[in-house]
Write a structure and sequence with these properties.
By secondary structure, this protein is α+β, with helices and mostly antiparallel strands. The chain has a single domain, classed as Arc Repressor Mutant, subunit A (Orthogonal Bundle). 65% of the residues lie in helices and 12% in strands. It has 7 helices and 3 strands, in the order ααβααββααα. It has helices spanning 3-10, 13-25, 30-37, 41-53, 76-87, 90-101, 106-114; strands at residues 28-29, 57-62, 65-70. Strands 1-3-2 form a 3-stranded antiparallel β-sheet. The protein is globular, with a radius of gyration of 13 Å. The relative contact order is 0.19.
């Protein structure tokens, strides 16, 4: 991934917030991001697909549901950027994390949104 691709991805609010939430929670499914962002499934899925396509995110299928996390083999400069981005922008996602956590703990969230 080039620097231009990376920063273009971050220039969209939905992608930026999704990425920050995924960093905060380590792994999220589309339904969890829909809850946190108050966005439609097609919009969230489209943005996640863009980040997956360039290798920023990786996914894993669990039944019919797909969970996303940050790619563990990103270049060091991207990892460093993500650490700084996350650490210095917690206020940007604070109310979205609160909304996400209203879904319950991880196993309950999966049952509530993904069963």
């Amino acid at each position: 991934m080039t620097a231009l691709e990376f920063f273009k991805l971050l220039s969209d609010e939905t992608r930026l917030l999704s990425l920050l939430l995924i960093i905060e929670e380590k792994e999220l499914c589309v339904c969890e991001l829909m809850q946190a962002l108050d966005e439609s499934q097609p919009k969230v899925s489209r943005h996640l697909a863009q980040m997956r396509k360039v290798g920023l995110l990786v996914d894993k299928r669990q039944g019919q549901w797909v969970f996303y996390r940050v790619n563990p083999v990103l270049p060091e400069w991207i990892n460093n950027s993500l650490v700084e981005l996350s650490a210095n922008n917690t206020g940007l996602i604070a109310h979205k994390v609160t909304s996400l956590h209203k879904m319950g703990d991880r196993p309950e969230r999966v049952k509530a949104c993904c069963s």
